[in-house]
Design a protein that fits this description.
The structure holds two protein chains of two kinds. Chain A is an alpha/beta fold. Chain A has eleven helices and twelve strands. In chain A, strand 1, helix 2 and strand 2 form a beta-alpha-beta unit. Chain B is built from eleven helices and no strands. The chains are: A alpha/beta, B mainly alpha.
Chain lengths: 248, 227
């Protein structure tokens, strides 16, 4: 009896030791809102803990390649995870596209942006915010969109650039810029534009915003890292992403 | 040419910003520091604390509140709109305003200490020689506190060159207007163009070292000349 009990207790300890692991996740700025919800659901469903850090993908790259202890990177693009993979920083064969982002032209004013984005041609605004296209894929998509509309030259003088998409959102949210290109996920909740007016840019105007995830070498032996990577492809995570306007 | 056109443009904006901030702050800070050094007013401690306040908030936080304040619904934004200036966010003038606030303690405090160290005696002596207060200030107090002015100028200039978080928040990264060296270096780093980043950072460090060294030597010579 006593032996059985001891066995049971030690088995439980072992199990929980293997079970309640912690994973540190570097999350691209545009994905911060859905990821917080996903992490809560993940913790509830798996018992693991996900510790989230938000920032720009470029900064995460610099930090990871210099030994930052992140175990999963949820990037805003595909190139950065690919690059880390080439440099042998990741668990190979584990890279996957977790979400496809969408671009939106947004204003806090309820009637400034029309459903076709014709406001861009009117030019009736002092400035237009976008993320720095060198740094942020959403900025590059905005440039592609303007190129597609043949408005790049006409509007270039009105650009104000945020360092990342979160800052670009701030510029428009504080109305320092009357309108700007942001990530749909920042202004979308439960299938609706939450405030102001917006034009969801047709996806054929820009290259797909594929956002890739990788498990980094530091997370190779962490069960929570593997579990989270799987969870991100699961139905619960996807329905959360969908409510923020992401595709797959 | 290791430095690109946009990098050189950023250098030029930075130099303009730092020089103008230094010049304007010396003009603003001198009477303020004089008052703080000599007043017996009950407000002295309060004003002194207000002057030091920009040191407390992290630059990006200060920048965020400036962004809110300068926006069309913020108090400063409404003021500038009423004056027909438009909003100042994303303009060089906006950056200048931010820098003035941000670097204020670096100009006021060295001057205040210099004026306090000077005491009231030299001015009283000048007054007995029938110098007007203003005359006495410029021909007695200023030369005697020259080291304080040089320190204030060095600190303000250096601090403005190194300003980053605030510029990032209210600048909007517009080439030739609000893109400064620090944000440009950061952009290069983020874009993984480390080569460009190293060149620009290296030049900035060397240049700033030269300026600071030059001012320091100038300061020492002045101290030696003074009896």
């Amino acid at each position: 009896m006593k032996r059985t009990l001891t066995g049971l207790v030690s088995a439980l300890c072992l199990a929980s030791g293997a079970y309640a692991a912690e994973v540190s996740v570097a999350v691209a700025a545009n994905f911060s809102a859905p990821m917080q919800k996903i992490a809560t659901a993940f913790e509830r469903d798996s018992g693991h803990q996900a510790v989230l850090s938000f920032g720009s993908t470029g900064k995460f790259y610099a930090q990871i390649s210099h030994g930052a202890p992140f175990q999963i990177l949820l990037a805003a693009d595909q190139t950065t995870p690919e690059r880390l993979e080439r440099e042998g920083m990741t668990v190979s064969g584990k890279r996957f596209t977790y979400a496809i982002g969408k671009l939106a032209l947004w204003s806090r004013q309820p009637d400034l942006v029309d459903a076709q984005g014709a406001v861009l041609r009117s030019g009736k605004f002092a400035s237009i915010a976008l993320a720095d296209p060198r740094l942020a894929p959403y900025g590059a998509a905005a440039i592609e969109t303007l190129g597609h509309l043949d408005l790049l030259k006409a509007l270039q003088a009105k650009f104000v650039q945020g360092e990342n998409i979160a800052q670009t959102y701030q510029f428009v949210a504080t109305e320092n810029a009357p309108l700007g290109f942001v990530a749909l996920s920042q202004i979308y909740a439960d299938g609706l534009i939450s405030e102001g007016s917006a034009w969801i840019v047709p996806v054929e105007f820009y290259s797909p915003l594929l956002q890739d995830a990788v498990i980094l070498k530091t997370g190779a032996d962490n069960p929570a890292a593997v579990a989270l990577a799987d969870y991100l492809r699961g139905e619960k995570a996807r329905s959360i992403m969908q409510s923020y306007g992401y595709g797959f | 040419m290791p430095l690109s056109h946009e990098a050189l443009q950023a250098v030029w904006v930075t130099l303009q910003l730092a020089s103008l901030t230094t010049l304007l702050l010396l003009i603003i800070a001198t009477p303020l520091a004089w008052w703080l050094a000599h007043t017996r007013s009950a407000w002295r401690a309060t004003v002194g604390a207000l002057v030091a306040l920009p040191l407390v908030l992290p630059p990006t936080v200060l920048g965020f509140y400036l962004l809110v304040a300068l926006g069309p619904h913020g108090p400063l934004g409404q003021l500038t709109l009423a004056l027909g200036l438009g909003t100042l966010s994303f303009t060089f003038t906006g950056l200048l305003l931010g820098s003035l606030i941000f670097s204020l303690p670096f100009a006021v405090q060295p001057l205040q200490h210099a004026f306090q160290a000077l005491g009231t005696r030299p001015m009283e002596v000048a007054a007995t020689l029938r110098a007007s207060p203003l005359d006495a200030f410029f021909s007695v107090a200023v030369p005697m506190t020259r080291a304080g002015f040089i320190t204030a100028a060095i600190l303000t200039f250096a601090h403005t060159v190194g300003e980053f978080g605030m510029v990032l928040m209210i600048g909007g990264n517009i080439p030739g207007k609000t893109q400064v060296v620090s944000t440009q270096i950061y952009g290069y780093v983020e874009a993984m163009q480390y080569g460009q980043a190293h060149w620009l950072a290296g030049s900035m460090v060397l240049f700033s070292f030269a300026v600071l060294l030059g001012l320091g030597l100038l300061n020492r010579r002045n101290v030696r000349v003074m009896p």
